[in-house]
Amino acid sequence: MDNEQQKTILFVDDEESILNVSSEFFQRKGYQTLTAKSGVEALKILAHQSVDCCFTDINMPEMNGLELAEKIRVNDNTMPVIVMTGYPSLENTIQTIKNGVVDFLIKPVNLKQMELSVQRVIQQRKLFVENVLLKKEVESKKRLEKLNQELLYKVEELNILNKIMSKFAAISTSTDVFKRAVDMALEIAHADLTSFYVINETVQEPVEVSSAATGQLSGPAASPAPETGPGIPPTQHLKNPGLSKSVLIMEVVSDQIPLLIAENGGTNGLPQDINSAMIVPLKIRETVFGVLTAFVNQGAKRFTEKDLYYLSFLAQSAAHAIENLALYENIYENLFATLYAFVKAVEARDLYTQQHSSRVTGLSLILGQHLGCSKEELDTLNFAGHLHDIGKIGIRDDILLKPGRLTSEEFEKIKDHPVIGANILEQLGLWEQERQIIRCHHERFDGSGYPDGIKDQKIPFLARILSVADVYDAMASERAYRKKMEDDVIIKIINEGVGTQFDPDVVAAFNNVYKEGKISHYMETGEIS
């Protein structure tokens, strides 16, 4: 970019790291950059500097981004303002347009995305100036109506983009991502058939893993995934296929560029039953791992560049969701491994309690299954069971390992371990339900337990399960101060605690699984039958 064409961009954000990275990136691209840490500071700069475009965050001290945009609009309603936020909402979207904002980016913002936005708004600035002037001219009514329509289109576009992002915000598995992608593609593009294909290096053909079709679509093409699999071309269920869909898909994978065929002219490679088609690659770290396809098989509908834009954005959101899931799973696997290592360190201090947490977890899962717990609840029990005694890492050895009876003062220290354990998980930002189970596993059904003295249904149900499993294993294991108890003695003690120490329903379940031999089988083999 030469000096005559050099444009000046103002970045406004209270996060210095964002200012530094953005400023350095655009300087390398040939722009002049200015930075401000608040809206007030930005207005001082604008009073003395000529600026071609302004990036601003919404949430800032002293003056938020919308207030800054409004003041810029009052002083110079031709200056493009691009708002960035980490908390998108319809209300913010509408407000930004009212304030003269011409683009709306969702954090975390890709620098390439910022560059494309700058190029677009600067190219449109002449038209923007002209449109502002047209508002003052009575004879420009038609052009003003067109501008208003464009603004309505912008609201619609932002709503669709926001909808796409929100749909991928709370997804827990890759399978859900694939299903959500094809369902949304069908809805947004008004397609007849959408599919998600995974590109696997071990096979020669793309593998269809999810698809969706309209209720009106009939014939072989309506089938979501008839016989598609490794080595089976995804076109085999189409009538008069023409060139193979898999060939087109692999061309898109090779080029890494979205493909739009608006109209089937008979010579563009589309199977004869497809009237219009879009194929978009999904990339993670510049590597294509799949494609999202959309087809029109009947009717007058034909895809446009706007449809391709939405589908590309949807594919990008799906790719980010999958990448975030992989990162999340890796981070939490490492975190859980660290926490489990803490538990092992606690158990290693006392040879008599080694493997206690694992056994309590197994016993809890047996009880949970018998009581009809859901998979999610069993997963929660598995996590909380392994970590229920992690708080003992904060108890002194002379108390934790004392061979004789504890004094009342020492027992009060021991009673701190559920709170210590819950606090450890809280500092790591882990889930509330698991923390509450760890905190409450020594509460008693009659309210005489610790640390909070809650009773009955106020004690989390899974904590009531864990409590019975914990007590059983404690009595069935060798301890420094006593031998393990006989099973008939343990069963008697547990049943004597019905309604006082234990939930009657949980004890009833324990009696049932004990009679079925599941408890003894697990204690002998470590296997849950």
Structure at a glance:
The chain has 20 helices and 10 strands.
What report would you give on this structure?
Helix 8 packs antiparallel against helix 10 and helix 16 crosses helix 17. The strands form two sheets. A five-stranded parallel beta sheet has the order 2-1-3-4-5, sandwiched between helices. A five-stranded antiparallel beta sheet has the order 7-6-10-9-8, sandwiched between helices. 50% of the residues lie in helices and 11% in strands. It has three domains: 160 residues, Response regulator (Rossmann fold), CATH 3.40.50; 153 residues, Beta-Lactamase (2-Layer Sandwich); 177 residues, Hypothetical protein af1432, CATH 1.10.3210.10. It is built from 20 helices and ten strands. Strand 4, helix 4 and strand 5 form a beta-alpha-beta unit.
Determine the N-to-C terminus distance.
Answer: 71 Å
Main sheet: which strands, in order across?
Answer: 2-1-3-4-5
Tell me the structural class: alpha/beta
The name CATH uses for the topology of the largest domain is Hypothetical protein af1432
Radius of gyration: 32 Å
* Tertiary shape: elongated
Q: Give the second-level CATH assignment, the architecture of the largest domain.
A: Orthogonal Bundle
Number of strands: 10
The tally of domains stands at: 3
Listing every helix as H and every strand as E from the N terminus to the C terminus, the arrangement reads EHEHEHEHEHHHHEEHEEEHHHHHHHHHHH
Major beta sheet, specifics? 5 strands, parallel
CATH C-level class of the largest domain is Mainly Alpha
User: Helix segment count?
Assistant: 20
